[in-house]
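The following block was generated as part of the benchmark described in Methods. Ligand: (2Z)-2-iminopentanedioic acid.
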Amino acid sequence: MNKYVESVIENVKAKHANEPEFVQTVEEVLSSLSPVVDAHPEYEKADLLNRMTEPERMFTFRVVWTDDQGNTHTNRGWRCQFNGAIGPYKGGLRFQKNVYEGIIKFLGFEQTFKNSLTGLPIGGAKGGSDFDPAGKSDAEVMRFCQSFMTALYRYISPDIDVPAGDMGVGGREIGYLYGQYRRLKGVWENGVLTGKGLTYGGSLIRPEATGYGAVYYLENVLKHEGDKIEGKTIAAAGFGNVTWGICKKAMQLGAKVVTLSGPDGYIYDPDGVATPEKVDYLLTMRATDPMHVKPYADKFGCQFVAGEKPWGVKCDVVMPSAMQNDVKMPQAEKIAACGAKYYIEVANMPTTNDALNFLRAQKHIIVAPSKAVNAGGVGVSALEMSQNSERLVWTAEEVDEKLKQMMKNIHDNSAAAAEKYGLGYDLVAGANIAGFEKVATAMMEQGLF
Ligand code: 2IT
């Protein structure tokens, strides 16, 4: 490996020993960049990689709220404005009990490369809180969001930093956050958040965009292989917004998702989550009990496996769409043996580095990385920002068409970037390189800071 790349990885390991997720993503991305840094000695001279692995700014804040019984709670909030070289900081907010600096930082780093891949002018950011949304009433969520935004609003705007949703933050939370922003600023600046409701500037297709985009990306991979999507079986995970979008688009295109998972286990539905009734039921489950996927098996009479993950089930395509590090070595070994030819990451960093390298080394499997596959979500967020700034509304067909084209460009640009460095059809390295090149060029042109 390039000596400078190696030294930066060592620096990051030393500085972030207590943030394993961040170290993991830095190692994954930087190890793809060796040939690029070999070809560009000026990057080392400008210490570009140490600069790119240090957030431009990251801050933490106190979020105090009262529950319905009048008890006071104190949570922690974060925003990491990782890299603004190519556009305003952009990235979601995650509300989950296990959130801490290392999670926000890894997501902000990934977001920088992902946002660059969309081809649109958005920098990388992430934020969130260790607030646990499970079991909270609407009123509690509203008070939490109002308090969170009161702490954050001075540091964001449509031209500075544009948060959105992530795990634990959906349309309801974005509504409360936007309401508080408007109340505090006294100005119509709806471009400050994306994932909004349709009545106040949200974009059609934004809820579907991550899942739809992932399936469009898969179609491009299949096309490259002379294959097609009709009849394919897909093992997916989770049953949230992203997986819902995958099920819906797969159904439209004649493929079927055969597994879903939750904290309680997974379901196997050989007929596929492939009728409008089944697909809609995911939304019902999500709204009533996000901790259990078993109700799907009870309702539609299929198999439920308690306490297990769906990896290893026979299928054509594996799409880990739940959360980070869902696939470790034991699961990767099952996936390598399950007959699937396509491993299409969807959730942010769903695979540990050893498992990812193991899968990439399998001759019979094509691996695609999440930062490319799930980029349609933030890509449509950028389209929402455009509509807001121009005060206009695009139709669902217009947005969907742009999303489709965007996913084709991301696939083709990743493939071309890998090809340029003699790596063949390597979508993982290609996404890292293509995402990096735009940010690197912008940083080099903007001088040292
Ligand atoms: O991981 C992601 O790309 C997101 N959660 C969406 C971010 C966004 O700004 O739409």
